[in-house]
Amino acid sequence: MQKPYPATAADRIRQTLEDQIVNAELPPGLALDEALLAQRCGVSRTPVRDALLQLSAQGFVHIKPRVGIFVAALEPGELANMFETLAYLEGLCAGLASQRITQAGRAELLAAHRDAEPARAASRPGGYAAANLAFHDILYRASGNSYLIQQIMAIRKRTHPYRLRHFDQPGRLACSWREHAGVLEAVLDGDERAASQAATRHIVEGGQQFREFAERFPQGLYAAVGSMRAAEQAAPAAATLAWLYGPRTAGRHTKPVN
């Protein structure tokens, strides 16, 4: 078996920047400073440039020749398309899971749903967001399709900066748990069609509530954030979320949620 190649400096920088973009520590629209990033990482500009090229290929940053490098900002139409795609991929995943889930997986999924009950989840580390993630992760693994999982996670990462406080929307948390119950029942019954429909509807409902929320901000989901240096001199970049969602605690919702 061939041994994996060790991560290069560019790989490590790419992963760090990707995590910061996904969690909005580097928010959409921010102008990235290659020299400043190199200084922060303690490397030359070459691995930083390589990392940014990788991120550009993944859609996380936009490189505009003779203008600059910016964290990608999604337009409402792009977000709608991503939600639509995610809905059907999640449906496919649940349908496959209904046919492939093991006895151990069934018990694990049932336990995850019980742990996600809002009152119970509130007393656990990470709250409902962590419990929701655990439920979805079990479904993903039960599908037995690693390529499908990669596509789902790619969309979730791209949309995550816009959904950091998704469950703070009125009624969304309770709705999400009830929708999970429908997915759970269909998967445990081995009903592929019902599981697919329930999972698709779950994402569609969440996306619709999100779009209704976003429409209240015609100027965009993120205020202009300028450059990295300007953000450092003013306030942490993630503080730009405050005008949209209200104050948030650093470190919350560190993974994609729905």
TrEMBL record:
<dbReference type="InterPro" id="IPR008920">
    <property type="entry name" value="TF_FadR/GntR_C"/>
</dbReference>
<keyword id="KW-0804">Transcription</keyword>
<keyword id="KW-0805">Transcription regulation</keyword>
<feature type="domain" description="HTH gntR-type">
    <location>
        <begin position="7"/>
        <end position="74"/>
    </location>
</feature>
<protein>
    <submittedName>
        <fullName>GntR family transcriptional regulator</fullName>
    </submittedName>
</protein>
<dbReference type="InterPro" id="IPR036390">
    <property type="entry name" value="WH_DNA-bd_sf"/>
</dbReference>
<dbReference type="GO" id="GO:0003677">
    <property type="term" value="F:DNA binding"/>
</dbReference>
<keyword id="KW-0238">DNA-binding</keyword>
<dbReference type="Pfam" id="PF00392">
    <property type="entry name" value="GntR"/>
</dbReference>
<dbReference type="GO" id="GO:0003700">
    <property type="term" value="F:DNA-binding transcription factor activity"/>
</dbReference>
<dbReference type="InterPro" id="IPR000524">
    <property type="entry name" value="Tscrpt_reg_HTH_GntR"/>
</dbReference>
<dbReference type="Pfam" id="PF07729">
    <property type="entry name" value="FCD"/>
</dbReference>
<dbReference type="InterPro" id="IPR011711">
    <property type="entry name" value="GntR_C"/>
</dbReference>
<dbReference type="InterPro" id="IPR036388">
    <property type="entry name" value="WH-like_DNA-bd_sf"/>
</dbReference>
